[in-house]
Specification:
The protein has helices at about 5-10, 15-20, 50-65; strands at about 25, 30-40, 75-85, 95-105, 110-115, 125-135. The chain is an alpha+beta fold. The chain has one domain (about 5-140): Hotdog Thioesterase (Thiol Ester Dehydrase, Chain A), CATH 3.10.129.
Length: about 140
């Protein structure tokens, strides 16, 4: 699947990613990348990037990456666990996340998501996401 196809698949769904201004920017065989603005939508009360916004970016990228590794007509990926270490505060600009697979198994996937400040390259957040791969019941499978 190409980046444009992933964007089309996720477009117009009124998701949290849309509300936070998350944009997908790159897709290769090795990673999925996106960026998010650091502004009023993603600030905590003291004007810094909210840790929850960083986690939302991490889970968005890791979940999409996981989805691209399965047969979406027969399986789905759902989050089991996410953790995040918030390493540096950011007040403005953009942060960029890169999700890379650590483990792609039959029933689980583990993804590492590194979030950096787009301007300085400083590591802002390091996250790990574990996904369960589940079989879709026949009634939930897309029509052939």
């Amino acid at each position: 699947m190409t980046l444009d196809e992933v964007k089309a698949l996720t477009a117009g769904r009124s998701t949290l990613a849309d509300a936070l201004g998350i944009e997908l920017t790159a897709l290769t065989d090795d990673y999925l990348e996106g960026r998010m603005p650091v502004d009023g939508r993603t600030h905590q009360p003291f004007g810094l990037l909210h840790g929850g916004a960083s986690v939302a970016l991490a889970e968005t990228l890791g979940s999409l990456g996981a989805m691209l590794r399965v047969d979406m007509t027969r399986q789905a990926c759902v989050g089991l666990e996410i953790n995040a270490n918030h390493l540096k505060g950011v007040r403005d600009g953009w942060v960029r996340g890169r999700a890379t697979p650590v483990h792609i198994g039959r029933s689980t996937q583990v993804w590492e998501i590194r979030i950096t400040h787009e301007e300085t390259g400083a590591l802002v957040c390091l996250s790990r996401l574990t996904m369960a791969v589940i079989d879709l019941p026949p009634a939930a499978r897309p029509a052939a």
